[in-house]
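Two proteins, back to back. First:
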Amino acid sequence: MRIFKALLPLTALIAAPAIAETALPADPLGSPMWEYHGARLFGADRVVFDSRVKVSLPIIAENQQVVPVTVDARALKGVQRILLFADLNPIPVAIDYRPGEAAPFVATRIKLDQRTPVRGAVQTADGTWHVSGGWIDAAGGGCSAPPISRVRGDWADHLGEMRGGAWQAGDAMRIRVSFRHPMDTGLVENIPAYNIETLKINDMSGKQLAAMTIYGSVAEDPAFTLEIAGAGRPVMVAARDTAGLEFSGKIAVHGAARPQ
């Protein structure tokens, strides 16, 4: 009995990698890591560079351990996810935000280990990723230096303390919430990785409005500013860190977060 094997034409075998290579658009920032991160984060999804995604960041990081970044994608419809990442960081992705019923807007502070492009990547309902960003000059060491609370030695005394407030911004409620947490990257000798890893915003009935996955490249004592549709309704904020500790509180307009 003969066994026949179906063989792909040589031209098909050669063409397949070329398709993968041309899936990403050319990077206007000229990053040496663009293709690597693009393949890892976006897979086979369509990717476009889109000026409607507004990424606000400083030109120079005066403090590489605390670099403010805002991603505003409110000009797009049907936003499903927002990724904030720095190409040349040892921990590239800072947050993976799923706004759900919230506005596609997020502001936070990150660490930078060197000069790098910082990008916001926004996925819409059709699966397309809309990308924008720019270079930030940084002296380095943001991810590999110990947090201030570790140096002082008082990090455990205030671990998980939460502050928050909300105010009306047009038809939406803007929320700012922060936590006391060292956000250890695991890149400092004798200090293992330890960070807040999830954040959820729920209404008072328990319905989830927005959710975020958080990584160690977010700055110590992380702070987040978000927008929730509607006027004046209180929300519950809940976070969990990589040790399983949970922190939560209630935020109302013009009020402070009250731990539960």
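And the second protein:
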Amino acid sequence: MPISSSIEVSNHPIVDGRWFAVGRSGAEDAYTAGLESSSEALVRDDAKLLVVFCSDSYDLAELLVGINERSGGVPLIGCSTAGEISASGAGDASVVVSALGGPGFSIATSLATNASDDLRGAGAAASECVAEVSAAPHRVLLLLTDGLAGDQQEIVRGAYSMAGARVPLVGGCAGDGLKMQQTSQLYGDQVLTDAVVAAAIGSEAPMGIGVRHGWRKVGEPMLVTKSDGNRVFVLDDRPALDVYLERLEAPDAAWNDPAAFTHFALTHPLGLQRRSGEEVRFVAEADFADRSLGCIAEVPQGGLTWIMEGDSDSVLLGTDAACNEAMSTLAGRTPLGVLAFDCIARRGVLGDPGIETEVARIGEHVGGVPIAGFYTYGEIARTRGVGGFHNQTLVVLALS
């Protein structure tokens, strides 16, 4: 293996011409925020891709004007969030722009609209760009989706059908600050909803993915008596919403107020038993008329499910494990930077002090390199098999 040459400019490492940098702005004006964050990220003039994570409180069209004016039209994908992450910490009402470039990276982007009409087809269509980086020795497909469009595992299946087994999938579902009404996906100068945007990243050096959730199942299992995709109608032969709220001794407001229910359910996911371990399902909303639960991904009828719980210690242990897993595949290299896709539910467990601890912990694991990420409505990480959609999980992509 050749020895890498490495220099560092303004705390942004450059290895064999490859580089990764992050900018952040909390300016109230959208154009200014876009201009400031992209100016900070564009530390060199050979950027290949911009990835944008931003609050939905901005005028997103104006935000993109500011970013694209500074970048000169560098390929761009991004999405709205339930909170933004950078090495400086986690928070809201900001925009985080990451840029990667140099001759050691090859990039292609694509998108699919009207995803909810055909989720699997949208996943496949958005992933067509992966063919354009087929010559690169190391590849990954980055996907940003509308988590409110339906069963996200279908999008992952579609992406897998196009990318194949050798190309890992990574990414997350856009957020809207936990309003659960409408999320946005960004592509070039376009602001979209009900879409999937994708970037195929080819690199001369390894890229590592880590994924862990830090939750554990509690209590007796429940039989999923009736479900349809990501909607659960009946648990243990009773209305699913009633069983769920009774099991958790939920507060009165969660029984009849949609916002109160969502905030309560945020830290009380459902778990499914899989060959690879427990998978977690974010309970996003409830239908108070038919007493059903709406999850972000499929909960199979006839299977067993559990209530899951976690605390700050277990969630942070998951953080450690995800970072270690991502770093372990870099063949001893120091990463250039990290993209982090962290579930909004984990933020709910950690609280404000805990999320600062988590971001600092990620920084320690990756050696203080630039970090960009967001709080999601679901996470994508497929490194083996055909599955790869997660809830209540941290996914880390380390670039080297």
